[in-house]
Amino acid sequence: MNDLTALGAVEQARCVRDREVSVRELVDACIARVECLNDAVNAVCTTTYDAARAAADRAQAALDAGGDVGPLHGVPFLVKDLLSTAGVRTTYGSRVYADLVPDEDDVAVERLLNAGAIMIGKTN
């Protein structure tokens, strides 16, 4: 597989389900892409790489065990910092909330996570 980050979410999910790529490989490819570009574009303001890699390992184990997986199982995503993320700093784009760490996810984030997607960070 050439560039996993160039694939759409549906295709990434298919590649994971068909075991053309492991969840960890996909997550690591997306993290590498962010690291390569973020200094120039300053799009990602908070990263959750360690948690994402741990989630990738759990997602792969569930897949390997034949567990029921969601439609976005193993697909990495970034979420706009305007949405609350449980346990992850959420500034809502304001210095006033620079230290806010919500207890709950916004419904959109919750739905992505429930579909099996893996958050790798927050965007400006």
What is the fold's blueprint, element by element?
Blueprint: H1 9-17, H2 23-41, E1 44-47, H3 49-64, E2 76-80, H4 107-114, E3 118-123
Parallel strand pairs: 2-3
Antiparallel strand pairs: 1-3
Helix pairs in contact: 2-3
| Poorly predicted spans | none
Name the assembly state: single chain
Radius of gyration: 14 Å
Q: Could you say which overall geometry the principal axes of the C-alpha atoms support? A: globular
Share in helix: 40-55%
Question: If you average the pLDDT, what whole number results?
Answer: 95
- Indicate the proportion of strand residues: 5-15%
Describe the sheet with the most strands.
3 strands, mixed
Q: H/E series, N to C? A: HHEHEHE
The side-by-side strand order for the widest beta sheet comes to: 1-3-2
**SS elements, strand count:** 3
Structural class, please? alpha+beta
Count of helix runs: 4
Distance between the termini: 30 Å
Task: Give a written overview of the molecule.
The termini are far apart. The model has no long low-confidence stretch (mean pLDDT 95). This protein has helices spanning 9-17, 23-41, 49-64, 107-114; strands at 44-47, 76-80, 118-123. The protein has 124 residues and is an alpha+beta fold. The longest helix is centred in the N-terminal third of the chain and has 19 residues, at 23-41. It is 42% helix and 12% strand. The protein has four helices and three strands; from the N terminus they run H-H-E-H-E-H-E. It has a three-stranded mixed β-sheet with strand order 1-3-2, with helices on both faces. Helix 2 (23-41) packs antiparallel against helix 3. The protein is globular, with a radius of gyration of 14 Å.
